[in-house]
Amino acid sequence: MPGARTAIETLRAGIARLTEAGLPDPTGDARLLLAHALALPRHHLSGALSQPMPADALRLFDAALLARAACQPISQITGRRAFWKHEFRVTRDTLDPRPDTETLVEAALAEPFTSVLDLGTGTGAILISLLAERPDARGTGTDISAAALAVAKENAVMNNVCANFLEADWFAGVAGQFDLIVSNPPYIALDEMAGLAPDVRNWEPRQALTDEGDGLTAYRVIAAGAPAHLLPGGRLMVEIGPTQGRQVVALMQAAGLADPRVLPDLDGRDRVVHARKPG
């Protein structure tokens, strides 16, 4: 229609709105949201910029800009997040899967396993990524949030992975032993919460971020319970905050786990602690 706003004009206006809102990457955010509004893969957006904006897409883009200006995470607005080799549904009931957590997946895949337990599974991103690489393995994910488990189940179906999910507080109700236990638990200390970016602090589920204490509560429970749920020689691997390595190593040693060590992420920060059940 003559005079209709083109996608490039819409994009420029969106960048200006997000710049005014003080977002750190207004151009990148606007491009992602425009691709979402147009139902296009991000790498196809450039070819559509000269085209007129459909009215429905324009309304969707405007709503997305409003949400992003309020610091809602991109993944919650679009409802999806790329992680490892897959895409996952994300809601306000789940922690947003982050590239740092791929360090845990990569390390877990460095050795064979036939059974895996993911404690605090959230979106199921860790468990589903591992089982997709080991289709003959069995896996269980636990979470205290029924809403998060519903998202994890949907993600398993979406990614053609068979997994069991259990509403549980860490090991409660978990039967049997596993070759591998993994977890990305809430590790932000209460006094660190105020310093988080508003995208995280105001939008992601608080119980997935902090233990309302020193940030180590989950590691105490996981380290103490892991030996009873690991097969001899089985591995425990947990994501940590970059200053927690020494303390989490000490907890694993106190629980009788062998050879605890800290693994860095791609930026060189401490990211994963790995230990093994003797045997």
Which stretches are low in confidence, meaning pLDDT under 50 for 5 or more residues running?
A: none
Q: What spatial form do the alpha-carbon principal axes imply?
A: elongated
Integer count of domains: 2
CATH class category name of the largest domain = Alpha Beta
Series of H and E elements: HHHHEEHEHEHEEHHEHEE
The CA-CA distance between the termini, in Å, is 72 Å
CATH topology of the largest domain: Rossmann fold
Tell me what portion of residues adopts beta-strand conformation. Answer: 15-25%
- Rg calc: 21 Å
The fourth-level CATH homologous superfamily of the largest domain is Vaccinia Virus protein VP39
Give your account of this protein's structure.
With 279 residues, the chain is an alpha/beta fold. It folds into two domains: 7-70; 91-276, Vaccinia Virus protein VP39 (Rossmann fold). The chain is 37% helix and 19% strand. It has ten helices and nine strands. It has helices at 7-20, 26-37, 55-69, 74-78, 102-108, 125-133, 146-158, 198-201, 217-229, 245-254; strands at 80-83, 86-89, 115-119, 138-143, 164-167, 178-183, 230-239, 258-264, 270-276. The strands form two sheets. The chain has a seven-stranded mixed sheet with strand order 5-4-3-6-7-9-8, sandwiched between helices. It has a two-stranded antiparallel sheet with strand order 1-2. Helix 6 (125-133) links the parallel strand 3 and strand 4 (138-143). The longest helix has 15 residues, at 55-69. The mean pLDDT is 96. Substrate binds at residues 184-187. Residues 101-188 form the Methyltransferase small domain.
